[in-house]
Design a protein that fits this description.
By secondary structure, this protein is an alpha/beta fold. It has 6 helices and 11 strands. It has a single domain, classed as Leucine-rich repeat, LRR (right-handed beta-alpha superhelix) (Alpha-Beta Horseshoe), CATH 3.80.10.10. The structure holds 2-acetamido-2-deoxy-beta-D-glucopyranose (7 copies). The site of one 2-acetamido-2-deoxy-beta-D-glucopyranose has 4 residues, from loops.
């Protein structure tokens, strides 16, 4: 079959055109927008910070996160929107979603005794002005993370999803800064070392919360007395998971409450 641009004399031009069209189609599928330089640098710093904990022990770590120096936007290396675990806005190119769940890739959390603590500095995330979702679940974040100024994330006005679950060094020290993150709609702190009386005031401050997962923490006492009244101020709350805590009496295992009305 002869294509419209292909005659015997123009076959080179024909192939060039076809290759360009294929290239454009591939790019349209993969490009989510062009990466913002400041954000690209911050991502490389996040990678460096993680690798510092492990030294040379990890290879093939975030292999797409590479710095090709001053590449032009659009070539794979410099366009961080094409990197794994990242989503960008198609219109502005700003990073909207960071899926940094389980970076070391250990399958079984509880056999994970070789993972190193990650002294992550919250400052690195302040570059992502349009971030809506930050997933740092299961990364052995160290205690310094809680002191590195988590409240500054409140400058990210679009941040709606924060997952810090399965970071066993996270404890009640996180609460004062956490309660300032009022844009959050989904907060997962399950399987952390939060403990003791239910921190009612702190969670009641997060007025936009729709989903709160506090399962498998170490809360005890009586949730009904400490918590239910104030938590019921969270008018938008649709799901509160308190399974696997140590509450006393009939609510000793509250389970998944699917309607906030239950708490009124
Ligand atoms: C987000 O990024 C991931 C991995 O880079 C990709 O598989 C997914 O399709 C992206 N989602 C959207 C909505 O662009
Ligand atoms: C990790 O835990 C497993 C099972 O408890 C044990 O056999 C192994 O020796 C531990 N590894 C290290 C490095 O401690
Ligand atoms: C985090 O980074 C900021 C900015 O680079 C720096 O000022 C601060 O000292 C760092 N904090 C910690 C705990 O390392
Ligand atoms: C975080 O990422 C893990 C793995 O992809 C996923 O199972 C979990 O639901 C994510 N957390 C949130 C709050 O979306
Ligand atoms: C949290 O850890 C406990 C064990 O301490 C485990 O039984 C539970 O399944 C974990 N939660 C989730 C959501 O996997
Ligand atoms: C509740 O948990 C805290 C911290 O783990 C502990 O010190 C306290 O004794 C516990 N109280 C009860 C009544 O179990
Ligand atoms: C549960 O609460 C009752 C009083 O409400 C108290 O007598 C009992 O000791 C508590 N149980 C535990 C395990 O703390």
């Amino acid at each position: 079959m002869e294509c419209w641009a292909c005659s015997k004399h123009k076959s080179f031009l024909c192939w060039l055109l076809m290759l360009m069209m294929i290239h454009i189609l591939i790019m349209a599928e993969h490009t989510q927008g062009d990466c913002v330089e400041e954000e690209r640098k911050a991502l490389l710093e996040i990678k460096t910070s993680y690798m510092k904990s492990y030294g040379s022990e990890i290879d093939n770590f975030l292999p797409t996160w590479v710095d090709y120096g001053g590449g032009t936007p659009g070539d794979g290396g410099s366009n961080c929107c094409d990197w794994e675990r990242i989503n960008c806005s198609t219109t502005t190119g700003h990073v909207t979603k960071l899926s940094l769940y389980n970076l070391i890739g250990v399958e079984d959390v509880y056999m994970d005794n070789e993972s190193k603590l990650w002294p992550l500095n919250v400052s690195l995330f302040l570059h992502f002005k349009e971030l809506t979702s930050l997933n740092l679940s299961h990364n052995s974040l160290d205690k310094e993370f809680m002191k590195s100024g988590l409240e500054r994330l409140s400058s990210l006005k679009k941040l709606e999803v924060l997952d810090l679950s399965f970071n066993f060094d996270i404890d009640n020290n996180i609460l004062p800064s956490l309660m300032t993150l009022t844009s959050l709609k989904v907060l997962d702190l399950s399987n952390t070392s939060l403990n003791g009386n239910f921190p009612t005031n702190e969670f009641a401050a997060l007025e936009n919360l729709e989903v709160l997962d506090l399962s498998y923490c170490g809360f005890n006492g009586t949730f009904e007395v400490q918590g239910s009244e104030r938590v019921s101020r969270l008018r938008k709350l649709k799901s509160l998971n308190l399974a696997g805590n140590w509450f006393n009496e009939s609510k000793s295992n509250v389970g998944t409450i699917s309607s906030s009305r239950y708490l009124l």
